[in-house]
Amino acid sequence: MATIVVVHTGPVTVQPLKDQFAAQLPDVRMINIVDDSLLNDVRSAGHLTPEVTGRLYSYMSNAQAMGADFILNACSSVGEAVDTLRGMIRTPIIKIDETMAQEASRLGTRIGVVATVKTTLEPTVRLIRKKAVEAGREISVVERVAEEAFAALLAGDAERHDEVLRHTIVALADEVDVVVLAQVSMARLVPSLGQTRVPVLSSPQSGVATVKAALSDAH
């Protein structure tokens, strides 16, 4: 049985990824490592810090010691740390949003990105731009930070959070060729959006599909 270790920076990404593993890779052993101080520290600093990268290294080193076939990084805010850690950890590391970013740059030249916090938006935008350059495509990015949604979530008002995000996503879809949801936790909103004018991409499904393809290639 293959073992996949998923490294989370908060609890909100655990269940969406458990659901995707159950749907796409029911026969693998999924191990979750959660440290909810990581994302808080990134938000407090306003960017990824060496200390956060160091803690991620320790978790991914532990994942390697657990015999992981692959490590899945579940948080876009710390995705750039993976670029450093890939040279330090023998176990292959997959970013949850890498395939989504490739798909976005393939689908259009005007790409909308939605997040509720800038610390997630900015690395997601940089990743999309990087994938576009690798594909030889010229793109423009339209950014939306739904700060009101994040404030509602902090206040315990999940209904208001969802309402603000839905409005932001649908409005942005009228301006761009494709919309990217920068946070794993947003994926559950997709079924409630109805028929949007353009594709709306979220990372849990494509991220786990990438793990599935990597496992298939390895065997």
From TrEMBL:
Keywords: Plasmid. GO terms for molecular function: amino-acid racemase activity. Transmembrane segments: none annotated. Signal peptide: none annotated. It holds the Pfam family Asp_Glu_race. It comes from the Bacteria. Belongs to the HyuE racemase family. This is Asp/Glu racemase. It comes from Paraburkholderia largidicola.
